[in-house]
Amino acid sequence: MSDYETHTHEFAPVYDQNSRVLILGTFPSVKSREQCFYYGHPQNRFWKVLAALTECPLPNSIAAKKELLLSHRIAIWDVIASCDIIGSSDTSIKHVVPADIPSLLQKCSIQQIYGNGAKACQLYDKYLLSKTGMPIRKLPSTSPANAAFSLERLTESWRIILS
């Protein structure tokens, strides 16, 4: 088993003043940390789900991913600013320092916050709900570990972010 390592989130949230939906993950995976951008593991279905929902081509660059998000008024970030973690394991997370979500909410028009999986919601409720006063709604995780959900089922469950 690997040892815990302390990591700090090294890349900025994606948002602009028009963002109305905020999607929060927990903390970047090893692959995402290597790429310095969200949902970098090739088996994570986040970008496939968003492309299907928005009827856009699957983005294949960071610039294209940002354009997809911002053109549909979607912001993304993670609940955690820094933590101790083993690899990419959300279940190993400890010593959490939450991200400054309240300051992001002051800079845009977020109407609803969604969590990409249960752990993101649990961490948000524990560390941030009392600071933001804005509840989070749980979406099924796009992680490859969530094998119970097909891409089609994920896409249908995530359709709520467009309403």
Write the layout of secondary structure elements.
Blueprint: E1 5-8, E2 21-25, H1 30-35, H2 46-54, H3 62-71, E3 74-78, E4 80-85, E5 94-98, H4 101-107, E6 112-116, H5 118-127, H6 129-132, E7 136-139, H7 151-158
Parallel strand pairs: 2-3, 2-6, 6-7
Antiparallel strand pairs: 1-4, 4-5
Helix pairs in contact: 2-7
Description:
With 163 residues, the chain is of the alpha/beta class. The protein has a single domain, classed as 3-Layer(aba) Sandwich (Uracil-DNA Glycosylase, subunit E). Helices cover 33% and strands 21% of the residues. The protein contains 7 helices and 7 strands, in the order ββαααβββαβααβα. It has helices at 30-35, 46-54, 62-71, 101-107, 118-127, 129-132, 151-158, and strands at residues 5-8, 21-25, 74-78, 80-85, 94-98, 112-116, 136-139. The strands form 2 sheets. The chain has a 4-stranded parallel beta sheet. The longest helix has 10 residues, at 62-71. The chain is globular and about 40 Å long. The mean pLDDT is 95.
Q: Helicity, in percent?
A: 25-40%
End-to-end distance: 43 Å
Oligomeric composition of the shown chains: single chain
Structural class: alpha/beta
Quickly count the domains: 1
Order of SSEs? EEHHHEEEHEHHEH
The CATH superfamily is known as Uracil-DNA glycosylase-like domain
CATH topology type: Uracil-DNA Glycosylase, subunit E
Q: Total number of β-strand segments?
A: 7
Sequence stretches where pLDDT stays below 50 over 5 or more residues: none
Strand content: 15-25%
- The residue-averaged pLDDT reads 95
Silhouette = globular
Which CATH first-tier class would you pick?
A: Alpha Beta
- Using only CA atoms, what is the Rg? 15 Å
Q: How would you write the strand order of the largest sheet?
A: 3-2-6-7
Contiguous helical run count: 7
Tell me what the CATH architecture is.
Answer: 3-Layer(aba) Sandwich
The main pleated sheet reads as: 4 strands, parallel
